[in-house]
Amino acid sequence: MSQYFSAAMTACDNRCVYCGKDMLIDFETFMTGEEDHLIPRSRGGLDDATNIVIACSLCNRLKAGWVPPNGESMDRKELVNAIREEILRRRLKHMQIYFGWVFKNQELRPLWSNEE
After folding, report:
1. Residue 38's closest CA among 102, 87, 106, 97?
2. Where does 1-116 have alpha helices with state H?
3. Residue-wise pLDDT tens digits, 58-86
4. Cβ neighbour number for residue 115 with a 10 Å cutoff
5. CB atoms within 10 A of CB 68
6. For residue 105, what are the contacts with CB-CB under 8 A and spacing of at least 6?
7. What dotted CATH number matches 5-102?
8. Dist CA 105 CA 67 (whole Å)
9. How far apart are CA 55 and CA 84, in angstroms?
10. Helix or strand or coil: residue 35?
């Protein structure tokens, strides 16, 4: 944890800035909280409080080094929202893979389907 962790946790209301997970729900969850650079250092992002947020390990992993087109010119709120949308898209993709494994031998139909 860097010197920015406490300020980032406070700014994010102790939640993952991307999915909203309560990072203080228990010790294990707290320990999975990670500092995320909105603009990765590898892409010129600063290692300071203006560029660091708290993310759960899953969101941080799904984000990886992704930055939206023109992300460097977005204000912080726009940037967080754009990253949040991309992470949600990636989560859904991985959830489809997960449910494919969970229900590998079962045919799934939407609840609203009229098929019997």
Report:
1. 87
2. 5-11, 27-31, 57-63, 76-102
3. 999 999 999 999 998 999 999 999 999 99
4. 6
5. 14
6. none
7. 1.10.30
8. 38
9. 11
10. strand
Residue type, 43: R
Q: Is the pTM of this model over 0.90?
A: no
Q: Are 115 and 97 in contact (CB under 8 A)?
A: no
Give the position of tokens 């993310």: 55
Rounded to 5 degrees, what angle do the CA atoms 42, 72, 60 make?
55
Structure tokens at 112: 């609203």
Q: Which amino acid is at 65?
A: G
Smallest Cα–Cα separation from 4: which of 50, 41, 45, 64?
A: 50
Structure-token pair, residue 54:
């708290």
Q: In whole angstroms, give the CA distance from residue 94 to residue 82.
A: 19
The two tokens of residue 107 are 């045919």
Given the structure tokens 């990886």, which residue do they identify?
A: 64
